[in-house]
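Notes from the 1:1 (GR / supervisor)

We went over the backlog. Supervisor wanted to see one worked example end to end before approving the batch request, so GR pasted a single chain during the call. The sequence is below; no edits were made to it. Supervisor asked that the structure be written out right there so they could see what the output format looks like.
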Amino acid sequence: MKWNKKINVLLIGIILMVLMVGNAQAQGLVPCGGDGQNPCTFDDLMNLIKNVMNFAMINLAVPAAVGITIYGGVLMVISGGDEVKFKKGKEIIKGVAISFVIMFSAWLIVDTVIGLLKN
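Structure output shown during the call:
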């Protein structure tokens, strides 16, 4: 990868992170333990973990998966008959799909365990 491509990828990544983190709202993340609030309980800890997981999946993983899938699709479209670029784009999309299934499965397992522990 050339130096210019590395800088472009880094800048795009930084811009995406700033946009995603700008949407994060910490208010309500931990609804206990503050001034005039009830002390934290085990359920509050489970809610915190669930809130952080949901934020990571919805605000980080999904936009990243969409962006990388678009990048793979663009590589396939602009390949111009070059089978190496087309194959690279196809592998990127396949990798995103597999990674997203793994992330969603892990989220589902942890969410189920948290639900069982809370009750």
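Supervisor's comment: Residues 30 and 45 are 8 Å apart (CA to CA).
Batch request approved.
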